[in-house]
C-alpha cells in the first residue's frame, strides 16, 4: 500500500511530528510505501529525506513556507529556535497554516490544497492521513484527488472555550475570524467530511463526539507507540550509583528515586509534584526526586521549580538534570523506582507513561484524561486529580513495597511489548487504511 501522511511543521521537538515520523518508519519497515509532507522554514525543498533510516520506500517532503503561502513577516526568535529554522515567514503563518480557519482564508486553502493534491497524485499515493492541525486541507484534497482520507485527532483544541481563546488570539493579530462557537461548529463539520477519523485515545474520541458532534461510526482508536529497544528493564551496571553521585553528591545506595521526565511547562505539573514531595519525605526521608526535561519556550518555569524546591527546604533532595536522550535517557528511566506523571490539564494522549512502562517502572498519575486506558492497578496507581496528598500517598505506597513495584514494572513492560510498540501500531494502521479503502 502507498500511504501519504500530512503533518504541519517539520520539528522533531513536537509530539505530533514525532508520532508521524515513527509511524512512517514503522509502516515503511513493514513493507508499505510512505510519503510524508510537512511545512518547513527552509528556503528550498529537501525531498527524498528518509528520517535518516536509509529506507528507499520512505520519503519526506519538506515544503518551503514561501512556496505555499507567499512572502513577508518575521517569526518570533523563540518560536523559530523551537522549530529549528530561520526567522522569516509569511505574515499569514499562524492564522492560515497552523490554524487555517475557513473564514477569510479561502484563497490560502485553495492554493495549499491544489499544491498538496498535485504532489499526492505525482507520488502515487493510495490513501492519505492528515493531522488535525491542518485538517482544513482535507475536504479540498479529497475533492481534487478522489483519494480516501482519514484525519488524525490528536491535539487540536476541540472545546468551544478553547476555540474562543484562539479566536481572541487571531483578533489580536489583526485577523477577522469566526467567534469561538462558530469555529467549534465548523471544525466538527470539517472532520465529519473525512472517510475516517483516527483518535489517539478513547478519551479524546469521546470528547470529539460530545463536543464536536463527530460521527461515532467513523472513529477508530490508534494509540502512539514506542520502539522497545530504546528502553530497558534494568539500567547499565553502575549507572544508578553514578547518577545519584553526580546529581546529589556522595554514595547513597539506600536512596529511592522518584522520576519526572517531560517538557517543563506548567500543564505537565512538575510544580504539583514538588508540592507533594515534602509529604513523601515525611515517610521516606531517603527519597530523591529527579526532574528531567527542558523548557523549550518556557525557561522561566525551570527557574520557578528551582525556587520552589529551595523555598520548601527540599533542594537537597531535588535535582533538575535537564534534557536527556539516547542511552542516557534509557538508563534514567530504568533506574527509577517510581515514575510520576503529575498532569494538571487532561491530555488527549501522551507517551512518557508508555516509555516508563517500557522501562519496567511503575507509574503514578492522576485519574485524568486517557490515563485509565493504559494504567491499571497492575501497572501503576491513579490518584484523584489535583489532590497533592493523594499523589504523595500513591508514591509512598509504591516506595514501601519493592515487590509490588517490580511486579507492576514487569506487567507494564509486557503490556507495551504486546500492544504499544510501533511495529504493532503499524500493523493496526495498515488494517485501518485497508478498511477505509474497502468502503469506497
UniProtKB/TrEMBL annotation:
CDD domains assigned to the protein according to its UniProt record, in alphabetical order: GT4_PimA-like
Molecular function terms from GO: hexosyltransferase activity
Alphabetical list of InterPro entries matching this protein: Glyco_trans_1, Glycosyltransferase_grp1
Protein name: Glycosyl transferase family 1 domain-containing protein
Organism (species): Desulfotomaculum copahuensis
Alphabetized Gene3D superfamilies for the sequence: Glycogen Phosphorylase B
Domain Glycosyl transferase family: 253-413
